[in-house]
Specification:
198 residues; alpha+beta; three-stranded antiparallel sheet; 7 strands; globular
Length: 198
């Protein structure tokens, strides 16, 4: 009974999903963008990769427009340590420093004189760029928290839950009702070592 929408997510509007809800409230959106920008096997360009690194923002767009109670965002664990430029807006009037919205990453320098402080409304602001390990995770968290979701994250290994392979993945879970998530306890464990062998 599933409905499949095939295509580039950048060209699919949220209304395409809404019309299949039949007026019901959306409980959860689950998925993840291509992981190559964060993967050890990839070039680790992270969110600076314009081809796939910005696809997470399409996920954010759907969460923003469809307003599910929960979302589950999955990716490789590299997002927790890959170095990324994090752009901050520093206000010299009220002394606040905040992560700049993701959509400004490509042209933040040209917007310097136009972009006012979100706290005091002052125009005496400057951009500060810091290359940070785990910066991508910080940016992703910021985008979801701006939408009013309480987020938590954890790296889980599929082998700990019965899958026949070692596969570590990052999961970010967010609740619009600001509920706490109780992560599942592992159901499997490594075999005991006997005489140095497994």
């Amino acid at each position: 009974e599933s409905t499949v929408l095939e295509g580039d997510i950048r060209t699919i509007s949220s209304s395409e999903f809404s019309r299949h809800l039949n007026g019901d409230e959306l409980y959860c959106i689950a998925g993840g963008p291509p992981c190559q920008p964060f993967s050890k096997a990839g070039k680790q360009k992270s969110l600076n990769c314009t081809k796939n690194g910005d696809l997470f923002f399409e996920f954010v767009r759907l969460v923003k427009e469809l307003k599910p109670k929960w979302f589950i965002f999955e990716n490789v664990k590299g997002i927790t340590f890959t170095k990324t430029d994090v752009i901050y807006q520093k206000c010299n009037s009220c002394s606040t420093t905040r992560i700049a919205p993701f959509e400004l990453r490509q042209n933040f320098e040209s917007l310097k004189s136009e972009f006012k402080c979100s706290d005091c409304g002052g125009g005496n602001t400057e951009w500060v760029v810091q290359n940070e390990a785990g910066g991508s995770l910080k940016i992703v968290f910021h985008e979801f928290e701006k939408l009013g979701y309480k987020c938590s994250h954890k790296v889980l290994n599929a082998a700990d839950y019965g899958a026949p392979q070692i596969r570590e993945r990052l999961l970010i879970v967010g609740s619009r009702e600001e509920k706490d998530l109780k992560w599942p306890a592992p159901t499997h464990q490594k075999p005991n070592k006997v005489n140095g062998q497994r």
